[in-house]
Amino acid sequence: MLIRSASDIPASAITPREVYLNRRQFMAAGAGMTLALLGADAAASLLSRSSPFSTTEDKNSLKEITTYNNFYEFGTDKSDPAANAHTLKTSPWSIVVEGEAGKPRRFGMEELLKIAPLEERIYRLRCVEGWSMVIPWVGFPLASLLKLVEPTSKAKFVAFESLADPQQMPGVKSRVLDWPYREGLRIDEAMHPLTILAVGLYGEVLPKQNGAPVRLVVPWKYGFKSIKSIVRIRLQETQPSTSWSTANPSEYGFYSNVNPAVDHPRWSQATERRIGELFKRKTLPFNGYADQVAALYKGMDLRKFY
Ligand code: MTE
Asked: Whose CA is nearest to atom 5 of ligand 1?
């Protein structure tokens, strides 16, 4: 399930103290070389880094996080990504960052890993289907990447695209969505410090079913905004179209902020079931991140902008 090859990203370097044992196992598997890639100082500081943005709620288990997934490129059942994503080739990998930017360019994976210190971020993930998890991601702020390309004053939105290769992704042969999977954020949402690009979880390289090698995580929005296996990021003046709002505009809007007061036509959003728990709990506005993000939407009718 976990990817443990030396050519992968430096899991030894991103492992927080809690899972130190795993780090040692990873190093034994030969990742010492990639640790050097990050630089000794960076690697050392990563070991003690934990974020004030993290929740202290109980984490879901690695098994829960890696066997109950939505990744339609590998099938529509929750168990499909774990069964099928092994065919995804995650190296070499790069993301092109283009559009309204002074310095648009392509970033290789090694370069992406060095943009900012990797941190553990323990976030709630709330799926629109009514379940939730707590996931210890490893990543860095999306803002750190975007700043490097120098967004112009016309960069009002950010559009994201996943890989869509039918050779590697059997689900792409079905017409269940209009591929590639597309998502978008307003520029201030993209620049918000809670918004990260994740490259690992539980201190290890990101499992393929969770969107390896690099995926977005926007914890105050429904899970479908957190697009996996990203290959393209475009800064643009107009609001991007997204896969789910294109497929079903009355069910999915652009903003998709977690909002217990606005139900999805097929699923109540008032409560949620934390995977592994029996009883439902109340869903919190903005998934519990209202203090940090509610100001972004001041004056907006969140029933209209769902
Ligand atoms: N990204 C792509 N490319 N394809 C997908 O089908 N599913 C989304 C999101 N990102 C999806 C995607 C949905 S609906 C959810 S709930 C989360 O990924 C699930 O992330 P997880 O499997 O890591 O928990």
From this structure: 71
Of 200, 198, 193, nearest in space to 215 by CA: 198
Q: Residue 201: enclosing H or E segment and its boundaries?
A: strand 196-201
The pTM of the full predicted model, rounded to 2 decimals, is: 0.88
Q: Measured between alpha carbons, how far is 166 from 113 in angstroms, rounded to an integer?
A: 27
Q: Which of 251, 225, 221, 250 is nearest to 240 (CA)?
A: 225
Per-residue pLDDT tens listing for the chain (306 residues): 333 343 444 444 444 444 433 443 323 333 332 333 344 445 545 544 568 899 999 999 999 999 999 999 999 999 999 999 999 999 999 999 999 999 999 999 999 999 999 999 999 999 999 999 999 999 999 999 999 999 999 999 999 999 999 999 999 999 999 999 999 999 999 999 999 999 999 999 999 999 999 999 999 999 999 999 999 999 999 999 999 999 999 999 999 999 999 999 999 999 999 999 999 999 999 999 999 999 999 999 999 999
φ and ψ at residue 28, rounded to 5 degrees? -65, -30
Cβ of 162 below 6 Å from ligand 1: yes
Locate tokens 């609001």: which residue?
239
Determine if ligand 1 sits within 6 Å of the CB of residue 127. yes
* Contact 242 CB / ligand 1 (< 6 Å): no
Q: For the sheet containing 157-162, what is the strand order?
A: 105-108, 94-99, 230-236, 157-162, 182-186
Ligand 1, atom 12, residue with closest C-alpha = 227
State phi, psi for 101 to the nearest 5 degrees.
-145, 140
Where are the chain's structural domains? 6-255
CATH of the domain spanning 6-255:
3.90.420.10
Separation of 136 CA from ligand 1 center, angstroms? 16
- Measured from the CA of 223, which atom of ligand 1 is nearest? 16
- Going by C-alpha positions, the residue among 228, 200, 234, 205 that lies closest to residue 216 is 228
